[in-house]
Amino acid sequence: MTGSRAHTLFSFGTLMDERVQTALFGRAMPTSPASLAGYTTRPLKITDPAVIAASGLDVHLVLERRLGASVEGAVLHLTDRELAAADAYEVDDYTRRRVVLSSGESAWAYLDAKPLRPAERIVVVGDSIAYGRCDPRGGWVGHLAAAHIAGNEAERRLFNLAVPGSTLADVSEQTPALLAARRPDTLLVAAGINDSAVPLAGAEGDAESDAGADGTADFAQLTGSLDALAATALGHNARLVVAGPSWLDEDRTRAYEGLRFTRARALALRVFLRSWCEANHIDHLDLWEPLRERTDLLVDGLHPTAEGHRALYEHLDALGR
């Protein structure tokens, strides 16, 4: 028999209400005061009848980033079963993610399910596609920056630190030194196709065998890089968001620095990223579909045209904002 784990949950709204706790957990929970720096709250309209019945309110609160602000709340200590009950209570507008309390303690909290909507200061790291290659307007990140900053020019910032050719290993090594001066609340990692590239040497079938008979690949070596990025983000109390990869036209890709790119490997990377993010409660913004079968939106089979970058931005904006 496996025992239940203990979970620390920061509550700033209706989960502090003893009536809600009794309805969800069968008892009023012991709580202790806590605060969460770097956040404020905004109202959220609730339409779920069960949630309204439990809380007695049709407007709840949701967290939003704000440099210099702080949200007062309470810490609840929950079992596996109680945490699952809290998950079921929170509507789809919320998702459970890790935060660092003012005390320095790590805890779960329910954040906005749209990971870029509550952001104030975003740092983007990644490869040439995130860098904006083939688009003089800065690519999809340039579009995101314009829209994000326009929402509140005085407070919002976006820093594009992507470097062409980067892999997740490169990004995980280089990013920690770049964050302190930019004070990010959101770290957006563009996980591109460089991590799916295979050596050009060998028979044509070798790369396909690396991808596995079912078109999947073993990307376990990327776990350490992603774990390191998650730890780096949490160290700055920033939300980690992983975006990508985008679709590629294998028939038009060229070998680059001894590497080749296949759709099977890129698809396998997509599956791996989604699985890792789900297992670690990290946001994943899938960028595959907007370019799928749209060869006209790719310059060389890999890099989007200006129109392709626009399509990626519009898709990401719908998912994340």
TrEMBL record:
Listed Pfam families: GGACT, Lipase_GDSL_2
Highest taxon of source: Bacteria
Domain SGNH hydrolase-type esterase: 124-311
First and last residue of the signal peptide: none
SUPFAM superfamilies from the UniProt entry: Gamma-glutamyl cyclotransferase-like, SGNH hydrolase
Domain Gamma-glutamylcyclotransferase AIG2-like: 9-114
InterPro entries, sorted: AIG2-like_dom, Ester_Hydrolysis_Enzymes, GGCT-like, GGCT-like_sf, SGNH_hydro, SGNH_hydro_sf
UniProt xrefs under Gene3D superfamilies: Gamma-glutamyl cyclotransferase-like (3.10.490.10), SGNH hydrolase (3.40.50.1110)
Name of the protein this chain belongs to: Uncharacterized protein
